[in-house]
Every structure is written in C-alpha cells, then in structure tokens.
What does this fold into?
Amino acid sequence: MTFRKWVGRAALIGVLAGGGWLASLAFAADDKPQEIPVIAAGVEPGSTATRYPIVLVHGMMGFNELDLGWFGKQPYWRGIVEALQAGGATVRVVQVSAFNSSEVRGEQLLPQVERILKETGAQKVHLIGHSHGSQTSRYLAARKPEWVASVTAVAGPTFGSEFGDWVEQEVRDGTWSAALIMGLGRQLGRFVNWASGAELPQDVGGALASLNSAGAADFNRRFPGGVPSEPCGQGAAEVNGVRYYSWSGVGTFHNWLNPADYTMALTGLAFRKEAGDGLVGRCASHLGQVIRDDLPLNHFHAVNQFAGLVGEGADPIGPYVEHARRLKALGL
It folds into this structure.
C-alpha cells in the first residue's frame, strides 16, 4: 500500500473516530448563544445596507440551524448574520440538502429565493455560498440570472478538492474506507434533517461526485460563469449581469481548542498540489474577482465554526461585513 493510501486512511479514521465526538464536545460546551462579535458592535449603521438582500447558502453537511435540545440551537453562520444585520443588511439563511448534487441543491434553492424576492419586494439577491454552497449558488445564477445581483464563493471548490479526489478513488476501489464514508454520510444527513426539522433528500454519492476534480470540471463546463481559465487565475467579474467574487483561507490547524482543526489537519494530508484549508485548495477556490485566498482560516473557520474558536488575530466575520460594504458601494 502506498504512503498516500496510508495517509488517506489515517485521515479518514481520524475524521470518523475523533471528529464525531470532538464536534459533539464542542456543541456541548457551547450551550449558550454566542454573543454578537466585537466587530458587529463596531459596524456603522447603514454600512452593510445593500440594495438587494443577502442570501447565505450553506455547504455540504450544512444546515440553517440545529436544535440540539438541552445544548441549545446552533447556527451554521455563527455571528455572521448578526454582524451583517447590525449594519442594516437584509439577510436570509436558506437550507438545502446536506448531501446532494450541485444541481439538486440548486433546484431546492430556486423556490426559496423566489419566496425571498416576493417577501422583500426586491428584484434580485446577493448569494454567498460556503463550500458546496458556491456551486449551488452558481447553478441558480445560471438558471435565473435576472434574480441574482452577485455570487460569492467562500472556500468554494470551484476546481474540486484533492481530498474529494482521494475519496472518489476509495469509492471506486470499493474499500472499507468507502463503506465507512458512505455510511457516515447517510447518518449525518439523517441527523441534520432531524435536528433542523427538515425533510430533504440526502444523496452522499451525488455530493461526492460533485466535489471531486472531474465532477467540478463537468459542472464548470456547463455553468462557466466566473470560472477562471486556470485554477490560480481570476474569472470574469461579471457575466450576464451577475457579479462573481471569492475568498478563502489557508492552513488547517489554528486553534487547539477547536475540534475542526484536528479534523482539517488530517484531511489536509491528502493535499499535494497546493496549500489549502483542509478541504479546498487555495487556487482551486478561485471564482470571479478573487478578494483573498490566504486568510488564516481553515474550512470550518470560514463560517466561524465551531464555537467561534479561530486562530489568534483571525477574523472570520470581517470579510462578510467588508463584502457587504463593497456591494453597497457599487449600488448593489
């Protein structure tokens, strides 16, 4: 067995054996609603009041909010909604399948955005998608460009994920690792449905097929808006009236108290081509106008998870506030 295989399976074992209970421990310790971050208190009134509503689209394994009973309610976009609203932004959080293809998730997003447009009276929305939420948002922008003012990918796997490629190989080989991955995914999908009160179809295979390099390349061919001609490049800033942006982070281990850092340190071992955040490579995250690709945030830190435990001096919420200001300055 090659060294890469040993490393990959060690990473998987870490994710399965350690990630689950550590994440549960983090949730258990975080049984009080998080206070609005310091940055929210300093957001000037009206500074984030974009012309169009901001719609936040979660990634794989994601949700709107989990109700964990005694442990309280756990939001996906921790502190981000509050910070944007503090400056006057209209913000909506949507929920699609935790595991499914980009196209299925995009179709689920479509009626939710239509409802938001009717409720707010707005003509368009700004879509901000974390991880797999970026492809979900891009799908909607291609289907209904007249509904979308901008699409922003936060740690989005525009060109796929090296870890996703490793998972794909394990599934193709029919290994025990693949069986564990599929089984864990199905259980997580059921858990998210239960804890969020949703009844959404879950398809682990469809999600994985969307996020490896081959699946991402096929999606880019059919939905090319904002996609650079090469991974490290910048894509078109505007396509069919829709503006495209992206930002992402690098590094996997930033805070020893955060269980996500241990998991990202393990999954990050699968990366050989470039630095990444544990699940998405730095250049692979590029879409449209690249704002930053080197923030000191791993894949979970990009949405301020878990419990807001990030590296010293890191600010996962600031980029969202600054982006809202950017969109407002453009009259959007």
Notes: The chain has a mean pLDDT of 88. The chain has one domain: 3-219+252-271+298-329. The radius of gyration is 18 Å.
